[in-house]
Amino acid sequence: MRLASPEMPLNLAAAQHGFLSPTGVEIAFLLVGLVTFGAALVTVTTRQLVHAALWLVVALGGLAVEYLLLTAEFIAWVQVLIYVGSVVVLLLFGLMLTRAPIGRSPDADSGNRWAALTVAVAAAVALVWVVVDAFRTTWIDLNGPAAGSTRVTGESLFRHWVLPFEALSVLLLAALVGAIVLSRKAKAESESSPPPVNSRAVTESSPSVTDSGIHPVEQEGAR
Amino acid sequence: MHLAYPAVLSALLFCTGLYGVLARRNAILVLMSVELMLNAVNLNLVAFDVWLSRAARETLHSGQALTLFTIAIAAAEIGIGLAIVLAVYRNRGTSDIDKLRDTAEGPETRGPGTEGPGSSAAEKAEATA
């Protein structure tokens, strides 16, 4: 109801839109949203770790379709590229490198799952209640030019958001360096530890470091 | 489209991710749930940006710019998080969050999985990390 006078027909139209007569876009959004929500539920409840990552692909792809339905094209393709393309692949690599069990793992959920369920359901009820109560009559007009085409997004990004954009590139660089440092520390340890194996007395003060450095895989397998 | 549809979907996805973060035991599954929560926020940002760009003639497109920033930060977060999980797994032989109890307070200060020869190395690695 805050619109100016030229939008009055649109405003009247917004008042006429009811939940019982959905448009085609709304039906599509609802169906894809159900698939997305179901895939997210399976992701957090399945006992097979690799299946959780694959259902996460379905959830993220469904969200990309939702972005397309909201006419945010650039965000949709970025979502497909970065999330489905790289993040899920990284997660699968992580599952592989930590030797996740292939079949059903009985201890995928911790002991506090009922408390977690209580908290999540309470938060969901509160959020949905507040959101529906607040935005029950708000209508998004999806007609006209796309609100999130590459041209529009690029213009706003490089006209108003240049400084945060550059800061973000610095943050990505810092994350890159940090990930490399975190990953290669133990590797440098294991590379530097084999020479002291022959002269064991030298490293007597820290046997655990060399032990864990020489045969990390066997030691992890033995535990 | 009613704004309530994307807002409700975003709230449900956020709470699904919240349940996963609280209930999962494997660290990588917790990271997946964090990704779900971040995506719920992204959907909210995009929906409100589309609404405001039409209803309020907002040309700054802050929602979409912030969505792009969130996606980039989520990519950085997943890289760092997986590096930490792999370092912990390399030192402890497990990626279960329940077994990482070195800083736990209360009667049982040391969990069953933290004793042994690998403990000092893990502590050293964590202290330097």
TrEMBL record, chain A:
It is an enzyme of class 7 (translocase). It catalyses: a quinone + NADH + 5 H(+)(in) = a quinol + NAD(+) + 4 H(+)(out). It holds the Pfam family Oxidored_q3. Its main location: membrane. It is a multi-pass membrane protein. InterPro entries: NADH_UbQ/plastoQ_OxRdtase_su6 (IPR001457), Nuo/plastoQ_OxRdtase_6_NuoJ (IPR042106). Residues 200-211 have a biased composition (Polar residues). GO terms for molecular function: NADH dehydrogenase (ubiquinone) activity; quinone binding. Keywords: Cell membrane, Membrane, NAD, Quinone, Transmembrane, Transmembrane helix. NDH-1 shuttles electrons from NADH, via FMN and iron-sulfur (Fe-S) centers, to quinones in the respiratory chain. Couples the redox reaction to proton translocation (for every two electrons transferred, four hydrogen ions are translocated across the cytoplasmic membrane), and thus conserves the redox energy in a proton gradient. This is NADH-quinone oxidoreductase subunit J. It comes from Streptomyces alanosinicus. The lineage of its organism: Bacteria, Bacillati, Actinomycetota, Actinomycetes, Kitasatosporales.
TrEMBL record, chain B:
It is found in: Cell membrane; Membrane. GO terms for cellular component: NADH dehydrogenase complex; plasma membrane. The keyword NAD applies. Residues 98-129 are annotated as: Disordered. Its EC number is 7.1.1.-. Residues 98-108 have a biased composition (Basic and acidic residues). Keywords: Cell membrane, Membrane, NAD, Quinone, Translocase, Transmembrane, Transmembrane helix, Transport. Its main location: membrane. NDH-1 shuttles electrons from NADH, via FMN and iron-sulfur (Fe-S) centers, to quinones in the respiratory chain. The immediate electron acceptor for the enzyme in this species is believed to be a menaquinone. Couples the redox reaction to proton translocation (for every two electrons transferred, four hydrogen ions are translocated across the cytoplasmic membrane), and thus conserves the redox energy in a proton gradient. HAMAP family: NDH1_NuoK. Belongs to the complex I subunit 4L family. NDH-1 is composed of 14 different subunits. Subunits NuoA, H, J, K, L, M, N constitute the membrane sector of the complex. This is NADH-quinone oxidoreductase subunit K. The gene is nuoK1.
